[in-house]
Structures are given as structure tokens and as C-alpha cells.
Amino acid sequence: MQVHADRDRCEGHGLCADVAPEVYELDDDAVVVLRHDQVPAELERKAEAGARVCPVAALRVLP
Amino acid sequence: MTLRDVVVVGGSIAALTAVETLRMEDFDGRITVLSDEELPPYTRVPLSKGVLAGRQAAEDVVLAPLADEVDLHLRTPATGLDLDARTVTTPAGPVHYDGLVIATGARARRIGTPEQSERVLRSWADGRALRDDLGTARSVLVVGGGFLGMEIASTAVELGKDVTVVDVAAPLDRLLGTVVAAHVRSVAERAGVRFVVAHGGVRLVGAPVPTGVETPDGHRLAADLVVSAVGDVPNVEWLVGSGVPLGGGVVVDERCRVSPHVVAAGDVAVMSTGDGALTRTPTWTNAVEQARFAARALLHGDDAPAYRPSRYSWTEQFGLDVKMVGPMDPQGEPAVLDGGLGGGPVLLAWPDGDSPLQVMAVDHSTPPARLKRMVRGPRPAAAPA
Q: Nearest by CB to A17, which of B24, B64, B369?
């Protein structure tokens, strides 16, 4: 599984990182950064959960 | 009792988060979601910004889809509830539950008459219609200067419209405190927005499409497009007479419960804030957080943790990015922790920086997680009096 993060759309609310800190973090400008190019299988559910709470729909889970 | 059938009524982020939490907590029974929306769960946050500006389409606001093992019914409003029989009434027939999540949210409050087709912004359909209206309008009058009204004004200015905001008090004062509100208004005014304060409120004039407003002293304001952004009303009509306690929303306990088998979360839920007052908190963050606690309470009862909100909220308008933690309406002068109030990034705290009740970052890159840690832990919610 891969996640696509639209960094232009990200507003830095950090809800993704609250839910799934193993998958998402915010950089020094409070913009989302992905910790993995390929999400490990055991983190797939958390990656999906983190994507789902993004208020600006900046995160897309790709199969 | 072991739950086998959970019904979630609602189709937005609180409903989606409740479903997600149930599955994360290893609930393996059936989940049925009843939504009156035409779209699968989407975020309303971009409606006043990217959608209104024409930059974002439906596929840009729809949230990551629910898993296959959830039964999602769109265009299916709940019309009634029988607590004894444990059924939700819908136009397609009754739906049985042994656990119920009420997440029917709220709708736009309206101030017009039934003859007026008042423009509001709450749903995807509203956003699409308003985007089209905005395309042909030269002047826009926004009634209501809260976050939504000001965000609509910001987008309209960005599109080159002549924009006026009218409200009963100085816009944003009661949300951001007078200091930051004045700063945001001055930025808005430099962008071309006119503010009119009409004590006592306004009346919409023109029918069927409103063409302006009239103030209590008879002054009239006119515009090609009039938009009302005057708050929201919880969707509880389907629960009237059901026995579910209603008081400005669905009244829940400190674990988001109405009863052992019924929980509520999001814009529809009303909870005691600890000082006896019952409060509804219609924000994205509250919907997400409350839905998690509500789902756990449905599964684990008294063993589930009591709700502890982070009280994080934000607004983006006129190029300003405002993030805050703590109750709305900070009082008095803030302590300046970084930057300066004259412009540029600034980090503020009320009443002081040592033990703040509220912190606010304006164009400041402090991550929300750190803002949350800066604020005194909120008191746990108390049971309704």
C-alpha cells in the first residue's frame, strides 16, 4: 500500500499524525511527511485511519 | 450483552470515525450506516474554500472509503426511533439495531421566510450551487461573520467580488477574542471587505431569491448574491418523542452515551462542560474525537474512558492560518510567546504563557500537537446535571 500526500493542500492540523504517528509526521513547517514509501502491511489499517481524518482530504490511500 | 448489529445514523466524519473505531476495537458484527447525503462521507472543510473557488470537485472532498464489510445506505434519512423495539425508521422500512450511534450532525440555520430560497453553505450540494451563483455575481453580501461567513467572504474576495459582511457584533470577536479578531478584520478590510454591524440582526429582503437585508433601523444593503452563514441547528427532529433526551441537541453523558445501547457524537451531541452548562461543539476535531469515545462506550460501557476533548480548532481566511486550542472566545490581552501582533507569525496565550487556558498560532508553524500540550489539561466532562 502507498499513500499519496498532497503537500500543497495540507494545512498542518496533524490529525493523521495523532492517529498514526508510525506513518505520518509533520515537518518543521507543519506540513505532512510520509515515513514510508511503501506502507508496511502491519500499518495499513492505521495509514487508512490517518488518511480518513484529514479535514482537507489531502491524503489518498493507493492500493 | 454482546452486540451483533450496530446502526450508525449519519454520513459524515463522526459516523465514519465511529465505524472505523468499532472495527479497530475488533467489533466483528454487522455495521449499517444510514446517510441522507447523496455523496459518500466527505469533508465539509473545503466547501467554503476550494469548492467555492471552483478548484475542488466532489472526488477531492470525499474521504477514504469505508471498508467493504460496512453496509452504507445513501439517500436514506432516519425518520424515527423506537428505543423499546430497537429500530430506526427509514423510508425504506425499519432497521433493527442492538447498538446505535446517533451522528446526524446539524444543518444550516436559516433566517429567511419559507418563500425565500435562502443561500446557505453546509452540504456538498450547497457548495456546488453557491459556486455557480458566485460565478455570475459581482457583489456578495455575507450575513454572519463567524468562521464560515468569513471564509466565504475570503473566497469571494479572492474571486474579485465586491464583498460585505454584516453581523450583530464585530465579526470573530467572540471566537478569536477581540485582539486577534481585530487583526483578521484589518487584513480582510485591506483585501476589500466591508463590515457592517447591525445590532439586533437583519431581515432578508427579496423573494424568492434574497437581494439584500434590512437592518432594524431601516437601512438596506443589497447585493447580487446574499449568503446566510448564521450558525447551525442540530438534526434531532427524527428523535422527538422517542425518549432520547433533547436539549439543544442529543444530551449525552461523559462517555457520549444516551443509554447503554445508544451513543451520540459530533455536531448533534450536547455534553456538560463541567460547569453545568450543556454545550454542543460543532467542529471537525470534536466530531472525530467524540466519535471514538462514543464507539468505545458502546462496546465497553463503564469500562470505556470518559470523553476528553483536545479542543483544537482552526480557520483559514484572507491568507491567514489560525490554529487554536482551548475554549473559544479568549478574554483580554494575550501573552505574546513568539513573534509580534503587528503582522507575521505570532504565537499567543491567554491569560499568560505559564499556564495557558488558550493558545493560538497565527501563521505560526508550531504543530497542533505542541499547541495541545501547552494548554492545561481540560477538565474531564461531568455527567449532565
A: B369
Q: What is the pLDDT of residues B170-216, one digit of tens each?
A: 999 999 999 999 999 999 999 999 999 999 999 999 999 999 999 99
Asked if residues A61 and A1 have their Cβ atoms less than 8 Å apart, the reply is yes
Write out residues 14-33 of A within 8 Å (CB-CB) of B: 14-15, 17-18, 26, 28-30
CB contacts of B50 in chain A (<8 Å) are 9
Q: What domains does chain A contain, in order, with CATH numbers? A: 2-62 (3.30.70.20)
CATH 3.40.50.410 for the B110-228 domain, yes or no: no
Domain spanning B5-107+232-303 has what CATH number? 3.50.50.60
- Region(s) of chain B under CATH 3.50.50.60: 5-107+232-303, 110-228
ipTM for the whole complex: 0.92
B142 within 8 A of B164, measured Cβ to Cβ: yes
pTM of the model: 0.94
The residue count of chain A comes to: 63
In B96-222, alpha helices (H)? 124-136, 147-158, 173-190
